[in-house]
Design goal:
Blueprint: H1 4-7, E1 15-19, H2 24-40, E2 43-50, H3 56-70, E3 74-79, H4 88-106, E4 111-113, H5 118-131, H6 135-138, E5 144-146, E6 151-153, H7 161-170, H8 187-202, H9 206-235, E7 236-237, E8 240-242, H10 243-246, H11 251-266, H12 275-286, E9 291-296, E10 300-305, E11 308-313, E12 322-324, E13 328-330, E14 336-340, E15 350-353, E16 363-365, E17 372-374, E18 381-383, H13 384-390, H14 395-398, E19 403-405, E20 411-414, E21 418-419, E22 432-436
Parallel strand pairs: 1-2, 1-4, 2-3, 4-6
Antiparallel strand pairs: 5-6, 7-8, 8-11, 9-10, 10-11, 12-16, 13-14, 14-22, 15-22, 16-19, 17-18, 19-20, 20-21
Length: 437
C-alpha cells in the first residue's frame, strides 16, 4: 500500500510545484498530494509541459487543465513551440526544468516534486553503466536535490511503475499512456521493455537493491567530490589543465577532473561524451608529443601545448572573439553594436548603463564556460546557456552570439536576448546607451 507520508515529511503550509504529464506516475502523485492537501494546508501548483511532438499532447494538456479546475488546483502550462539542434531528450528536459524553476520562484515554493519512481532509477543506472560515466553518474538520480532556495523531491522513488498503476486503478484515476513509450527508437524504452522484465523476474523487489546501490555510490561520491575540488584548485588555471600538476594526482582523481572539465564545456550536450573520450584525453596528456590535439563530439578539440591542455571549439567551425568596445563594433554575425545618444525604445536591442555601476571599457565577446548573468527583475543569476535554450537560439549560433561585459568580466547585456540588473530604466540616470542592430 502506497503512503506518500512514509516517503517524505510534509510541513504545514508547504508550497509545492508538481510536474504533471498526465501519465500514470504523475497523476498518481497529484492524487496522493490531494489526499493530504487539507491535512497540511498544502498549496499545490500543477505544472504541465506540452512537448508538442504528438497529436495527443493537446488532449493530455486539456485533461490536466480540467482535472485542476475540478479539484481547485493552480494550473500552469507551456508549449514547446520548436526545438533547436541539440539532443531532443536533453533539450526537452532543460526546457521543462527551466519552466518548473520559473514557477518555483513565481509562487515562492519550497519544493518541486516529480513522479520519478524505482523503475526510472533502474533504467537510468543501467544506461549509465553501459554508456560509461563517473561514480556520481552511476548512482542515477537522487531522491532529494538541494537547489539552494528550494528542494527537488522525488517521493515515489521507493515504488515501481506497476504499483503506481495499481494505485490509479484502485482510486479510479484516469491517465494517459505516451504512445512513444512503446517505440524502440529511444534507448530508455529498450531497457524498459527488455531488461527490466528480466530483472524483475529474478527478484520482484530488485528496485530496492538498485536504490541501495544508488545510495552507496552517492555517499562515496560525496567523499570523492571533496577530494576532486581540492585537486581542481591545484591543476586548473582558467579552465585549462596544468599537465605537470595533473600528473601528480591519483589516476581516479585525474579522470574526475576531466569529467568536470567536460561537463563545464559541454553542459547540456554532456550525453555525447563517454569513457572512451576520457581515455583519448588521458592518452593525449601522457603522449610524448609537446603539441597535439584530438577531436571530440560537436566540433570540440582537446588541444595540448607543452604543459597546458584545454578544450575549445574548432575555429574552422565556430567564430570566437573578444573585442574592446569604443563607440561601434561590427560583429561576425553581420550585426553591429553602436553607442547612441537618445531613444525611447525599451526592447532587448537597447541597453542603458551607468558608468558608476560598471568598470570601463566594455568588452564584446563570445560566451565562456559557466557564464552567468544577473538578470534584470530576477533576484539572482541565470546561466547564459539556459537563456539561449529558453529563447530557442540554435546551437550553431550560441558560440558566436555577442555578450557585453565590463572590464571585470561582469555580463551587462546579451544583445537582442536579455538585459542584466545593470540596465537602467528610461527615467533613471545613465550615461551610456547601446543599440544592437
Amino acid at each position: 500500500m502506497i503512503n506518500i507520508e512514509d516517503s517524505f515529511s510534509f510541513h504545514d503550509g508547504d508550497v509545492i510545484v508538481v510536474g504533471c504529464s498526465a501519465g500514470p506516475d504523475s497523476m498518481a502523485l497529484v492524487d496522493m498530494l490531494l489526499k493530504i492537501r487539507d491535512k497540511y494546508r498544502l498549496q499545490l501548483i500543477i505544472a504541465h509541459v506540452n512537448h508538442n511532438v504528438r497529436y495527443e499532447s493537446f488532449e493530455e494538456a486539456e485533461y490536466v487543465k480540467h482535472f485542476c479546475e475540478k479539484n481547485a488546483l493552480v494550473y500552469e502550462t507551456m508549449i514547446i513551440e520548436e526545438y533547436g539542434d541539440d539532443n531532443f531528450e536533453n533539450e526537452a528536459r532543460t526546457i521543462r526544468y527551466n519552466f518548473f524553476e520559473t514557477l518555483v520562484k513565481k509562487y515562492s515554493a519550497n519544493y518541486l516534486m516529480t513522479a520519478h519512481h524505482g523503475d526510472d532509477l533502474i533504467e537510468t543506472i543501467l544506461m549509465r553503466i553501459v554508456r560509461g560515466s563517473n561514480l556520481n553518474g552511476y548512482s542515477g538520480f537522487k531522491k532529494i536535490v538541494d537547489m539552494d532556495s528550494y528542494l527537488i523531491v522525488r517521493p515515489l522513488i521507493n515504488y515501481t511503475k506497476k504499483e503506481l498503476e495499481q494505485y490509479n486503478d484502485i482510486n479510479n484515476i484516469k491517465y494517459y499512456i505516451d504512445s512513444s513509450n512503446s517505440s524502440d527508437k529511444y534507448t530508455r524504452n529498450r531497457y524498459r521493455k527488455y531488461v527490466l522484465p528480466f530483472l524483475k523476474n529474478e527478484d520482484s523487489n530488485v528496485h530496492y537493491k538498485f536504490l541501495k546501490f544508488s545510495d552507496t555510490l552517492e555517499s562515496a561520491s560525496r567523499f570523492i567530490l571533496n577530494e576532486k575540488n581540492k585537486a581542481l584548485k591545484r591543476v586548473l588555471s582558467n579552465n585549462r589543465i596544468l599537465i605537470d600538476k595533473f600528473k601528480e594526482e591519483d589516476e581516479y582523481i585525474q579522470r574526475e577532473v576531466l569529467y568536470y572539465l567536460l561537463s563545464e564545456f559541454y553542459q547540456d550536450d554532456l550525453i555525447l561524451v563517454c569513457d572512451k573520450h576520457i581515455d583519448l584525453i588521458m592518452n593525449l596528456i601522457y603522449s610524448r608529443k609537446s603539441n597535439s590535439f584530438i577531436n571530440l563530439p560537436n566540433q570540440v578539440v582537446a588541444s595540448k601545448s607543452y604543459n597546458v591542455l584545454e578544450l575549445k571549439r574548432d575555429v574552422g567551425v565556430i567564430t570566437s572573439y573578444e573585442i574592446e568596445f569604443d563607440d561601434f563594433v561590427s560583429l561576425p554575425n553581420n550585426h553591429k553594436i553602436e553607442r547612441i545618444f537618445s531613444t525611447t525604445e525599451n526592447s532587448n536591442n537597447i541597453c542603458r548603463l551607468s558608468s558608476d555601476d560598471i568598470v570601463l571599457p566594455l568588452i564584446v565577446r563570445t560566451r565562456k564556460i559557466g557564464d552567468k548573468i544577473m538578470v534584470k527583475g530576477l533576484n539572482g543569476s541565470k546561466k547564459v546557456k539556459d537563456i539561449f535554450i529558453d529563447k530557442k537560439i540554435k546551437s550553431s549560433e550560441r558560440d558566436s552570439w555577442p555578450i557585453v561585459v565590463d572590464s571585470m568580466d561582469k555580463i551587462v547585456w546579451i544583445p537582442g536576448i536579455k538585459k542584466s540588473k545593470f540596465d537602467r530604466k528610461n527615467s533613471d540616470n545613465y550615461d551610456i546607451i547601446l543599440k544592437y542592430d
